[in-house]
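seq:
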Amino acid sequence: MKLNTEFKQNTAIISFTGIVLVLFLLIFEILISAESHKADAKLNIEAANYTAALKSKVDRELNALLFVSNGLSSYLTIYHRNLEQQKVQNLLADLYARTKNVRNLAVAVGYKITYMHPIKSNEKAIGIDYRQLPQQWPQVKAAIDSHQGVLVGPMDLVQGGKGLIYRYPVYINQAYWGLLSTVINSDAFFKSAFKELVNDEYAFAIRNKNTQEVFYGDPQLFNQAKVYLSTSDNTDVAWEWAVMQKTEKASHLILITRLMGIAIAVLIAALVYFFLRERKMLTALAMHDSLTGVANRRLLDIRLEQALAHAKRFNRNLALLFLDIDHFKQLNDTHGHDVGDALLKTIALRLKSSIRDIDTLSRISGDEFVIVLAELNDINAANSIASKIVHAFKDGVQVLGKRIDVSLSIGVAAYGRGSEESPQSLMKKADIALYQAKVAGRNQFKVYTEVEQKSLFDIT
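struct:
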C-alpha cells in the first residue's frame, strides 16, 4: 500500500528515472560493445600471430625433411646408369640417420618401389606398383604430371599406420625416370614441431582442406563461434588451421564490465530518483505548511492569483473563505501544545474533506486558514460550503483520545462575473467579514457586504 502511494505521488519522477536508467544502460552498452569489438580484434591478432608461429615452425621442419629428396634426386640423376643396390641402400641409410621423424625413404624406378630404408617393418611396400594403389595413385600422378614435389596426408600407409608422404618425381633429359618418397611419422613430426609452442592459453587443430579430415587436435574447434581460421601458406600442403584461446580473459572482463555498467547505471538512476524526490519534498515544504501539510501563504498567493485570473478570463465566479479557530489560544493553553498541534491537523483534514479537489486550503498563521473556492457555477455555493464547515464541528473533535469542543468563525468574500477585484482586495474583504463573524458571537460565517449595495449573500 505504501509502495503504491509512493508510486502515485512520484509517477513523473519514476518515469524520468526510468529514462535516465535506460539512457545510461544504452551508453554503457555502446561503450562496452566498442571495447568488446576491440578485444575481439586484439584476440584475432594474437591468434593470428600464434597461428603464424605454428605454421612457420611446421614449414621449417618440413623444409628440413623435404630437402633430402632434392639431394637424393641429384645423385640419381648423375648415377642412374650405374646404380648398385648396396650403394643406394647405404645412401638411403645415411640420409635416414640424418633426419628426424622420418619413417622411411623409398625410391621407385618407374612406378615400382625398388629401394627402401629401413626395410624392417616396411617389407610390404617393396615391389609395389603405385598404379595398383587406388588411394595413392592420384597424388603420385599429380606429382609426375606437375614435375614438382607433392606433400599429401596424413594418410593410411600400405605397411600400416598413418604418415605424411612427400613424393618427388625424378626426370632425366626431360623424361620421367622414377619417384622419391619420404614418409614422415606424422604424430612424432607434429609433436616435435609444436613442443615449444603448445601451452595452456591456446588450443588448435589442423585438418585436410580437401577431405575436411582433422588429423591434429580437437575437431570441435572448427565449429566454435570465436575460433580463428587460417589456411597453410605452404603451397605443398592443403591444410586448414583452427586456433582458439582456451581462457577467454576478454569475455570475462567484458562480462564484469557489463555488470559494473549495469550497477553504475542503477546507482545513477537511484541517485537521480532520490535527488528529484528530495527536490520535490523541499519544494513541497517551501509551498506547504510543515504541520498540517496544506498550502502555506506563499502557495496561497500563487493559487489565488491563478484562480482569479482564470475567473476573469472565462467569466467565472470565485469565493474566498477566511477561517479562524475560536478561542484557540485558550484551548492550546488548557490542553497543551501537543494537543493544540494535533487539533490543527485534525481541523485541516476536516476542512480538506469539505471542499473540492480544485479548491485550495491553506494555513497562513497559527490558527488561521484560508480557502479559495475556484470555478463556482453559482456564486451562492460559497454560502453552502461555509455553512457546511461551521456545522462540521458542532459535535467537537477527538484529539489524542480527548473530545474537544471547537468552533470556527468564517469570513466570506466573493468575486462575481465582471466585478473588479484583486487578490489583496479579496483577502482584505474576507478578513473584514471574519471580524464581523467574531463580533457577532463566533461559530458562524459572515459575508463581506458593501455599505452602498445589498449583500451578495443572505447573511445568516
